[in-house]
Amino acid sequence: MNQLTPDIVIALKSGSKQAYEHVFHTLYNPLLNLATGIVGDEGSAEEIVQELLIKLWEKKEQLADDTRLFPYMLTSVRNRCYNYLRDRKVEDKYKQYQLQQYREEIMDYDLSNEDEALITRLHEAINEMPEKCQEVFKLSRFEGLSHKEIADKLDISTKTIENHITRAMKMLKSKFLVILYFILNSLGDL
């Protein structure tokens, strides 16, 4: 990156917002392309790149005067992406473990006719929810997706996800408080 001369580091260290903006606009797209290639998700890649560019500004005084910004930032982005993938892999393993635990608990649970009727009524109540509310609730409670994962999947905000889940829980509680209480105690926290 010929546009990033050694003088830009000195200007950046002195607090020049103009220098920072120049660095940001020069490096953003190449760093985003690298991050997207590594993590495979542009939204996560954008978060990683933006976070590192913000950290560059926050820790600008710690840069050596001879720092070559482009290789420095490429290495930072690469490392952060690998950490992100490692953390996501651990999180996915934990979710799979929890899901397996729930499945085993449900499969081992001896349902009597009475219990089956309660579960049927609960599913009917869920199916009576507005379509989007029902979809969000099922993705959250039955598929174990996080609010962010649901928001990404449905292309809506996490706040909207929270609102749908709150609405769904209120609907279930108002109609089937006893059923919900029984099932949660029997099967564990969905």
What features would you describe in this structure?
With 190 residues, the chain is mainly α. The chain has 2 domains: 6-88, Rna Polymerase Sigma Factor, Chain: A; 109-187, Arc Repressor Mutant, subunit A (Orthogonal Bundle), CATH 1.10.10.10. 80% of the residues lie in helices and 0% in strands. The chain is built from 8 helices and no strands. It has helices at 6-13, 17-39, 42-58, 69-108, 113-127, 131-141, 147-154, 158-187. The chain is elongated, with a radius of gyration of 24 Å. The termini are far apart. The mean pLDDT is 83.
Concise overview:
By secondary structure, the protein is mostly helical.
* Portion in beta strands: under 5%
Helix proportion of residues, in percent?
over 70%
Oligomerization category of the chains in this entry: single chain
What's the alpha carbon Rg, rounded to whole Å?
A: 24 Å
